[in-house]
Structure formats: C-alpha cells, structure tokens
Predict the structure.
Amino acid sequence: MSNAPHRDKILIVEDEEIIRVSLRKLLERHDYDVSDAVSIKAASENVDFKQFALIISDLRLPGQLGTDLIKMVDPVPVLIMTSYASLRSAVDTMRQGAVDYISKPFDHDEMLLSVRRILSASRHRAVAAKTLGDIALLGSSEAIKKITRVIPKVAASDLPILIQGETGSGKSALALAIHNGKKSTRQRFININCAGLKEAEFASQLDVSSSSTTVFLNNIAELEASLQPLLLRAMQNSQCRFICSSDQDLEKLCKANLFRKDLYYEIDVVSIAMPTMRQRSADISVITQAILTHFDDVSSGLTEDAARALIDYHWPGNLRQLKNTLQQAVILASLGEPIDAELIGLGEITPSPTQVTRHISKGAIDQRITQDYDAPAGLSLEDYFTRFVLENQENMSETDLAKKLGISRKSLWERRNKLGISRKKGDESLSD
C-alpha cells in the first residue's frame, strides 16, 4: 500500500472483522490510504491519530464507545457507524461532535458519498485555518485597530502575555501574530491546547529551553490542577516566551480556588482583551469576503439580504461561527448562484450570548425535533423524515417544515427527491 502524500489517510476502528475488512477494501479501491484497528486501545498504541484525515468508528467497541474518540482526536473528524440505528442515538452522537452517522449494514455508495463530503469539508476548513491569522485581524473598526496597534509593542518584549476573550474570537491568531511580530531569531511556535492534557504529554511539550521558542497555552483555564505547578516551574525556569489564552475569568477562578493564584500572577503580566464580533460588526463584510475567497465553489458572492443578515447577527461563537456558517452556505449553494439569506441560515431571532448555532451535517437532526416531536426510539432517520413530512405537509409550508427539521429548504427538497416524497398539490416550487 502506497503512502503517497496526496492520498487521504483514513483510520477504521471496528471490532467486527467482516465489516472492517469490507470497508477497508471499499476505501482502498477508491484510492484512500487506509489503516484499521479492532479497538480504540489498539489504535492508540499503534498509530498517531493526527495523521489521519478521517476516522470511521463503530459506536460499540470493546471497552469503549466510538464517540470517546471525538475529543481524543480533535480536530480530526469522526464518522460513527452502528447497527443500533435510531433517531435518538443519532441525535446523541451528533451532539457529541461526530461529523456524521451511518447505519450498518451500510450502503457502499452512501458510505463513499459521506466520506467524500466530510473530506471536502475538512479541506475547506484547513484552507480557512491557514489564513485565519490574517483574517482574524482584518478590519477598520476601532476595536481591532486597538489590537493591531498593540501587537508590535508587546511583540518586542519577552514578558508573558494573557489574551482573554470569548470562544472563537481569534485569540490563537493574535498569539501567532505577536510571535511573528518579534524581530529576532524567534522561530518556533508551540501551540498547546490545555483542555484534556495528560501529565506526560504536557511535560514533553514543555521540555523547551530555547529563547527562540514561543509557547502558546490555549485554554489555560482548562489546565488540570495537578499540571499547574509544572507550568509554574517551567515558566520560572525556561527561556521561552509564554503566551496564554482564556475564555474564562481567571481572577474569579482564583477566588473560587479553581486556579492557582501564583500561576495567574505569573501569566498575567501583559493582558490583552480580544474583542468579540459584536464589538467589531463593521469588520464583518471584509472578513466575510476574505473567507469566501478561499472557497473555490463560490463565484457569485452574497445577496444583499445575506450580507445584511451577517452584519445584524449576534455571533455568540464569534469569528469561528462566522467561518463555519459561511462554509455551510458554500456547501449548500448551487454552483454559480449567489448565497442568499436562507442558505446563511441564521433565522430571524437573535440568540443569547451563550447560545451557539450548530450546523448539522447530512443525517443529523436538530435538537428541536426531539423537543417538539416524540419519535419512537427505534425509528430510523429516513423513516422519521418521511413520517414527519407526510404527517405535517398539509398544514405546514416548506419553510416551516425545514425549520422544524433543522435543515434548509434546499436540503428538504433534495431529501424529498431522494426518498420519493411528492409535495402537496399547489406547492410544486421551492417558494411559499
């Protein structure tokens, strides 16, 4: 088997040999570079999860659930397959972060379609991520001007920096910009996500002594209490530049004895507050254009209504949510057609600051469905969709049906065609 760099690497975690071998052969026939394992434990002992473009895992594995992989391998996407197909298990799986859900025995064409779609979306995300450092700091709002003015000043110093701001606001991008703004021999940028770190892993990543290294500690508030003394000693003895970020109030955590005060004082020498998208709404148009230029699918931009919807929205997930929203719209948009407000999918209601919009992939059902409609536990997704549409289309418009199902009208139309569900008379167009 070739390990050519252009081939997407896929890991299969499946304890049933017949299914594992069959899926492996299917993917290899379509030129994927495939590895497999019988359990999460076996996989973790033999492979580096980060090398894979996609992981396909059975839900029920020896000793662990396949969904346990989701946090372990993040940001590698995880596709869950199971013979226990039901609406509720699908919803639960997607809520835990799986990119898609497929039932066993799976249809070969359906599996290949799902794999291609996931890998395509991942490539879009990778392209956007490469330029996020530039995109996050674009704009002419006073809020972002204040940040860009301070970058050269703090970059010239080796003092520890604490970047605070809401999730998705661009704290990592700011840290990288500060690192790159240092006019010296500083070459290395080590990005450590503190959430879920184990002691051995953390100690090895902190084993640096070069003054040319910047250590970025992302989500510092999530660092386990047992690891905080290790970090404190490292900061006191290392020649590295330390930059930390947090979406939580560390001072409050200290008062609640959830974070070491001495560590807080060590990292909070220079403090920078990263503005939210709500504070820099004037930058949304230029950021949107910059993101869209990295998607080859887009040729006609946004309609006026779509552009206005982006500016008017609350953006609880900030820059990350904006990027993901545009990515979804690009995937759903017809080639050559502009992206309209419906494809943006933000709705008319401005969410609360704690509410983050979720963009559900093919096969997923929005949480609202389980709240509004008590589906039988053993009902498959396709059966549920068919039943819901047939029972409600006489009394609901296409728009209302789509909203209840948590999908776009375009997706509703596509699923109707796929499942052979005709529309009610007098409703033969996509318009209401």
